[in-house]
Amino acid sequence: MNENELSQLVDKQRVYFSAKETISYQFRVNQLLKLRDAIKKYESDFIAALEHDLGKSEFESYLTEIGYILYELSHTLKNLKKWMKSKKIRTPLINQPASSRIHYSPLGVNLIIAPFNYPFMLTFSPLIAAMAAGNTAVIKTSELTPNISKLIHKLIKDTFTEEYIIHVEGEIHETTLLLKQKFDHVFFTGSPRVGSIVMSAAAKNLTPVTLELGGKSPCIVHVDANLDIAVNRIVYGKFMNAGQTCIAPDYIMVHKDIKEDFLERLKNRIIKLYGEDASLSPEFGRIVSEQHLERLLSLIKKDKVVVGGKWDKITKFLAPTVMRDISKQDDVMQTEIFGPILPVLDYSDIDELLMDIKDVSHHPLAAYIFSDSRFIQDKVTLGLQFGGGCINHCLQHIGNVNLPFGGVGESGIGSYHGFVGFERFSHKKSIIKVVTWFDLKLLYPPFSKLKLRLLRMFFK
Fold it and tell me: Domain check: are 155 and 30 in the same one?
């Protein structure tokens, strides 16, 4: 599409939204049910496309993408009527007699830009929230996952009218043209670098944004951690989707007293799950592109590899790789890894550790602490600024639709999932309804000293 065609498309959605077609509860429910039926219809096709684009197994595809979205749809359908109800708010004395409420009003025409790493889930999760809130949406998926993008395009085209929801095909050029349009809200998931471009473009139209970004998410293994549990859950969290997860543990900070034991268990666990040659494992994914593989290879220091390090450009394979004796100055600590490379650093003092983490990334998207000490747990969760995280596990917070998911600072703006997602795509319109059978003369001139005394009393 060219710029003129995209402009006409956005205008068509704006006319449709202005006609209040998307407002009613029944319309929203019917459209969400249509989406659910379509996803079930194309489920096997999506599983095949995810395997083709990212090397995902059927189990991983269902766990992290399709199954999660079906669960989020069910949760939304179950709770939507309650979410849509106006919320009663306490009215202060000076406004009496009156009643106050918040009405959830849809934002309007939304642009949703999805990334390559979870192309199904990170397209449909914000779309569900947008639909539940009564909006229209224009969707742009990543050109790096062409099979998924083609299938999403087909599903959207077969299921919805383009004035309601449409998927725009294309690459960076089309995304750039879309960002020139006047939307009511832009929802972007991706890197902080591209997020700043999106925010800059949206600012020209004073368009509000939700930015779901990334960062170097730390994982702390304290001296009292259950090492078998820690290793099992870290390997699960780090190497799912070949490490291409925005909330994956980016690096490990392990207490020096247990470092060697931890590294040995970590190595054994990786080999147990993926074998001596992970390229033969049907459970291990692939890097999305050769360019991304090249970037990852530049971060590996062969003399520090504990396990892994093998790669194949033809199949875009990079083995689960652990590196030891890493310092904050190493290249692998200067950028978000976003791949199956896990650097391990050590520490001895918890306060110095927190300072070191802040030096690496002041506002990571996630943080993880493995410890049975309530003091240490609180020290980390209260002492660091991060989007969200887990105690004694990895990734699990994203699976709870009742928890808001999002970053802070450079790791993101705004959060979503469940009711919070419904809120994110809504404007909370404040309404106060005042009676006509009584009129408070205190507010009208002339203002006497008596009125001032009464005003002071009201505000106490």
Answer: yes
Give the number of other CB atoms < 10 A from CB of residue 93. Answer: 10
> Is the CB of residue 113 less than 8 Å from the CB of residue 188?
yes
- pLDDT of 360-408, one tens digit each? 988 999 999 999 999 999 999 999 999 999 999 999 999 999 999 999 9
Tell me which of 51, 65, 72, 212 is the catalytic residue.
Answer: 212
The tokens of 360 are what? Answer: 């690496």
Domain total for the chain? 2
352 catalytic per annotation: no
> In the chain, what is the greatest distance between 2 CA atoms, to the nearest angstrom?
87
C-alpha to C-alpha distance for 45 and 36, rounded to whole angstroms = 15
Q: Alpha-carbon distance 86 to 431, whole Å?
A: 10
Q: Would you call 394 a catalytic residue per the annotation? A: no
Domain holding 377, by residue range, is 218-401
Residues 322 and 354 in one domain: yes
Catalytic, out of 65, 72, 219, 246: 246
Give the global pTM.
0.94
How far does CA 79 lie from the centroid of its chain?
21
Pairing type for strands 87-89 and 415-416 reads: unpaired
